[in-house]
Amino acid sequence: MSRIYLQKRGIFFLMIAVLLLLLPWAMPAKAENFDRNKYIYDFAHLLTDNEAAELQNIASELGKERETAFIILTVSGTDGKDIVQYVEDFYDDNAPGYDQPHGNTAILAIDMQERDIYLAGFKKAEQYLSDGRLDQIRDNITPDLSDGHYFQAFSAFITASHEYMGNEPNDGSGSDGYSDYGPGGSSVGYNGYDSGADQENIFFQWWFQLIASFIVAGVVVAIMAYRSGGRVTVNAGTYMNSDQSRVLNKYDNFVRQTVTRQRKPSNNTHSGGGGGITGGGHSHSGSRGKF
């Protein structure tokens, strides 16, 4: 294999790395037409016009304080998708966010057909609305959803998410600063504070991804160039004459067998925390259940 051919392959891998870096920026036309100032998507028609307008105002005002889009999404069927995938596709396709595409977003989604509820936090909301915090919010609004008090449940979600976004992420216990939210989203005894911190992960910064792509591409090219001289295929057996050697016999001796058992984790998708990564590569926190 010639050195020139290997160099061409290295350049090809470099182009692929740069292309993968630029793919997230090539958003579909659907995302460009998405109104990022709209926060209530009541496709299941659970709210009156006045209730939807009031929730829109609440989400808008509280969203400005936390620089986060608080979105309510109701549907009557998800076209055969799981509720989690439906929310992930909604985020990928529409690119919501407070001040930029695919920005800070907290979503409450319910499917009336399957009686599913899913809460998700993206970007900064993924850190401040952890799985544990979303579990607590979901547990407290589920009774209202079950009783058909949708406005109360939705407003409680927005209010609770807003207060959690002003309280630093905890150590994972999920019990810091949250108090029971009753109907209408009122709270008692909450001791939160507005940190104003924006702890964006460095791995999601475009400049870091660009540098990492070139480093990976450079390593690939270096490895290809190093191996361009060919591999050494000569070993001890190459010059050994088995007919005249003094090796009289060879054998394999079985010594022991070890079997390791591990319990298979249960696949409970009906309740509890459950974040993940969307098809577009956006990580998020999450909590799902029934109502």
UniProtKB/TrEMBL annotation:
Signal peptide: none annotated. It holds the Pfam family TPM_phosphatase. Residues 40-161 form the TPM domain. Residues 259-291 are annotated as: Disordered. It comes from the Bacteria. Residues 259-269 have a biased composition (Polar residues). The chain crosses the membrane at residues 206-226. Residues 271-283 have a biased composition (Gly residues). Keywords: Membrane, Transmembrane, Transmembrane helix. This is TPM domain-containing protein.
